[in-house]
Write a structure and sequence with these properties.
The chain is α/β, with parallel strands linked by helices and about 290 residues long. About 35% of the residues lie in helices and about 15% in strands. The longest helix is centred in the middle third of the chain and has 20 residues.
């Protein structure tokens, strides 16, 4: 299922043995909290959409996370009640309709001019943004259009200390025709904008599907990356031994660079939600 579909269905459909199970700090399966590591770990809200936000925050705190990722405005302030952060705000736009088309710019910019100060006032320092779908457009044109549209928002983002993070998504499996489907594409947008208020959200799952060579790609582009997402490949499920990525090694490398941003888990658990999340945190505690 796609992220844009999950929020509408998770509340009524229990994912196989996982997100349909409420997760709370009282759950005996939480067990011992792993020692704090060098990476600041978080979890994406939509993967636990059937769990009330207060329960998710309680569990996140109990297992050593620093915050909750991809929250909408109605939930921005909740993590603070638990000593957590909203580590990434949802976009005000949509995945298919993004900055790669000038026809979208006026609305995206006008909405962003309202949304960014509101996020900053709630303590949200990063917001995800999207390129939009290709629809036959060339890569060069899409990059130039994204630069032109996002440049209009940079003064507002810089004034309020907010970083807009373009997420790279795979166009093979989950987001057909998405334009920013390779790291190099999004890096060109970052270079063109040349602003501290624009960086990349490097989704390890999506980029493994599209281009692989994860650690080398991160090494070459780390100055442009402000956030990471995880999930197992293939399937977007647990980051365990049943999938092809060595997340322990990836986490070790990222931590070794002195990276101080957030490393957020965005997998759809197939098993018990708490156990799977706790295992992921332990794997990436380096």
């Amino acid at each position: 299922m796609h992220r844009r579909d999950m929020l509408g269905t998770l509340g009524t459909v229990a994912m196989a043995g996982a997100v349909g199970v409420p997760i709370t700090s009282a759950d005996e399966r939480i067990g011992e909290v792993p020692a704090a590591g060098r990476l600041r770990q978080s979890v994406s809200r939509w993967c636990y959409g059937s769990t009330p936000i207060h329960e998710l925050c309680t569990t996140a705190k109990a297992i050593g996370l620093v915050g909750i990722d991809l929250l909408g405005p109605d939930e921005w302030s909740v993590p603070q009640q638990y000593g957590l952060e909203c580590t990434m705000g949802n976009s005000w736009g949509t995945i298919p309709v993004g900055f790669n088309r000038p026809a979208n710019h006026d609305k995206l910019v006008a909405d962003g001019e309202t949304y960014i100060p509101r996020a900053a006032a709630a303590g949200v320092k990063k917001i995800v943004v999207f390129s939009g779908n290709k629809g036959g457009m060339s890569d060069g044109e899409g990059i130039a259009n994204c630069i032109a549209g996002l440049k209009r928002l940079m003064p507002t983002a810089e004034k309020h200390g907010v970083v807009l993070c373009m997420e790279m998504l795979n166009s093979k499996v989950d987001h057909k025709d998405y334009h920013a489907d390779h790291t190099a594409w999004a890096v060109e947008v970052a270079k063109g904008l040349n602003s501290p208020s624009f960086r990349l959200l490097y989704d390890i799952y999506h980029m493994q599907v599209m281009e692989g060579d994860v650690i080398a790609t991160i090494k070459a582009n780390l100055p442009y990356i402000a956030h990471f997402h995880t999930a197992g490949v293939p399937g977007r499920n647990e980051i365990d031994g049943a999938q092809e990525l060595n997340y322990r090694g990836i986490a070790e490398y990222i931590a070794s660079t002195g990276y101080t941003g957030v490393f957020a888990h965005e997998f759809i658990p197939k098993r018990n939600g708490v156990a799977s999340l706790k295992e992921a945190v332990a794997t990436c505690t380096v």
